[in-house]
Write a structure and sequence with these properties.
Structural class: alpha/beta
Oligomer: single chain
Helix content: 40-55%
Radius of gyration: 26 Å
Number of domains: 3
Strand order of the largest sheet: 3-2-1-4-5
Number of strands: 7
Shape: globular
């Protein structure tokens, strides 16, 4: 009997649907397994390709299944959807995953290591605390506006609101003053936790040779460098720097038909956290260059002379992504380009 060639697994919390296909594409088996029986079932199968959607828990299962001797392929869910036939159910999803994994031109997601997932959790935790701090500051500003007290935007300006709360002649009700100090205490607590995570990120970034190399690029700090290590796939999987920037969604969206190219805004594909960090870093470089009035990079000077500032920032983020690919693959450090 012909052995199974590809096994597709539809992941879930407790109930897993498994679809096996032979080399000719015919169905070998369809099974429904509980969570505790998945590894034992795969251990009884001969070495083959095991495919799953790149969703929550997929990297854990990928590591465990690869340890059994199987080749693991993680397929982006957006690429699985076209293979689903008619009704949407677990069996149809498992079959669609199997068919998608057999395509020779399919793009797969690399299985992350435990260290990469730990770095990603560190980044997401810091990002969550920053959002909570911003929400608390906005809540404080919004409540005090109801009593006619306003302050300029920015975290550095909330000291003006603290001065109002300290003023005994402000006319604010006692309950408002107490709740205002409660929010200030929450802001100080979040500041302390974020500063601690920033120090940890900086320590890890300096200790790792790869992140230290990336930090030599203008606009990339320890947070962005660590995020690139945590979220980006191996740079060797991209043929050139443009492929990496396209994966990030920093290239124009195409709508070409009849041989007539039509380009729009950036496609916004790929990992949005990395794209946001690169654009923010590029915007910082552009803003500082304009404020200083001295632009040493001839490419940046030419772009600012012709294009709006935000458009230049996105173009610079694209350039930074290509530079990241070049430095990582060639094991070099960034060299400043100056005008002739």
């Amino acid at each position: 009997m012909e052995e199974v060639s590809v096994i597709g697994i539809d992941l879930a919390k407790r109930s897993f649907q498994v679809h096996g296909a032979k080399a000719d594409g015919s169905v070998a088996f369809r099974r429904k397994l509980s969570r505790g029986k998945v590894l034992s079932f795969l251990a009884s199968q001969p070495p083959c390709t095991v495919a799953m959607e790149a969703c929550a828990g997929a990297h854990y299962w990928g590591r465990e299944i690869a340890a059994l001797g199987h080749e693991v392929r993680l397929v982006p869910p957006i690429y699985v959807k076209p293979f689903v036939k008619r009704q949407k159910n677990d069996a149809a999803d498992a079959e669609a995953i199997t068919e998608a994994a057999e395509r020779p031109t399919m793009h797969f997601v690399a299985v992350k290591t435990e260290a990469q997932q730990a770095q990603a959790m560190l980044f997401h935790t810091r990002d969550l605390l920053v959002r909570q701090r911003t929400q608390t500051i906005n809540a404080l500003r919004g409540h005090l506006v109801e009593y006619g007290i306003v302050a300029p935007k920015g975290r550095a300006r909330i000291g003006q609101l603290a001065a109002v709360l300290e003023d005994g002649d402000s006319g604010l009700p006692e309950a408002v003053v107490e709740l205002g100090w409660l929010l200030f205490g929450r802001i100080d607590e979040l500041d302390e936790k974020i500063d601690g995570l920033d120090r940890e990120l900086l320590r890890r970034a300096r200790e790792d040779e790869e992140t230290a190399r990336l930090m030599t690029i203008p606009g990339i700090g320890p947070v962005t460098a660590m995020a690139l290590q945590a979220f980006a796939p191996p740079m060797e999987s991209f043929r050139r720097g443009r492929d990496f920037s396209a994966w990030l969604g920093l290239v124009p969206r195409q709508h070409t038909t009849g041989g007539k190219p039509r380009l729009g805004g950036i496609s916004k594909m790929g990992q949005r956290d990395l794209r946001r960090l690169l654009v923010s870093g590029a915007m910082t470089v552009v803003t500082h260059a304009i404020r200083r009035g001295e632009i040493t990079d001839p490419w940046l000077a030419g772009m600012l002379a012709r294009k709006p500032k935000k458009l230049v920032a996105v173009a610079l983020a694209n350039k930074m992504a290509r530079t990241v690919w070049a430095l990582t693959t060639k094991k070099e450090t960034y060299r400043v380009r100056t005008a002739a």
